[in-house]
Structures are given as structure tokens and as C-alpha cells.
Amino acid sequence: MKPAIRKIALERMQILIDNAITNARIDPELSQRQAFLARRISTRYKIRMPFDLRMVFCKKCKSFIAPGINSRIRIGRASIKSIRISCNLCGHTYRKIIPK
Ligand SMILES: [Zn+2]
Q1: Ligand 1 geometric centre to CA of 88 (Å)
Q2: Percentage with pLDDT > 70 across the chain
Q3: Residue 26 annotated as binding?
Q4: Range of the domain at 60
Q5: What's the whole-model pTM score?
Q6: What is the pLDDT of residue 11?
């Protein structure tokens, strides 16, 4: 695959996720659709989503979970910086250590 295509696909995913997060509160149906499209780009072009995009999808039920709406994000207070993301749809929580 040409690097240019990869770059465009990544940009499109980023825009779709940004819009999905913005629309989650006002138009949940549209936001689900935008998130779905972003995931489809990732599958079609075999591009792994960067972490900041992947974190809006539940690892367990694969739903789009908008931060603060369908999911709860908590920053750990320990010396090791970590975040915990809980999915409000299936209740799954996962933890991610933030590398410095
Ligand atoms: Zn879930």
C-alpha cells in the first residue's frame, strides 16, 4: 500500500472519530455510524488504529463508547500513570498504562 493512502485513511479515521465524539450527545445514531465507518476503514486498509482512536471502542462488546457518555474514564492516582476505561454498555473495564 502506498504511504499516501495510509495517511489519508488515518486522517479520515481521525476525523470520523472526532465527529462521532462530538455527535455522541446530540445525535447518537449518527455518531455510531461515524464510528462504524472509521472501523471499516481500519479493516479495509488493514491499518491499526492509534490508541487514542481505539480507546473509544469497548474491547469486549466492540461498541463505540464516547468518553464521558457511554464510558467512564478515570486517571489512576498511583505513581504509575494509568487510565481506566469503563464501558457503560457491557460493564467491561480495562486499564491502560500511559507510557511517558
Ligand atoms: Zn462494552
Answers
A1: 7
A2: 99
A3: no
A4: 3-97
A5: 0.84
A6: 97
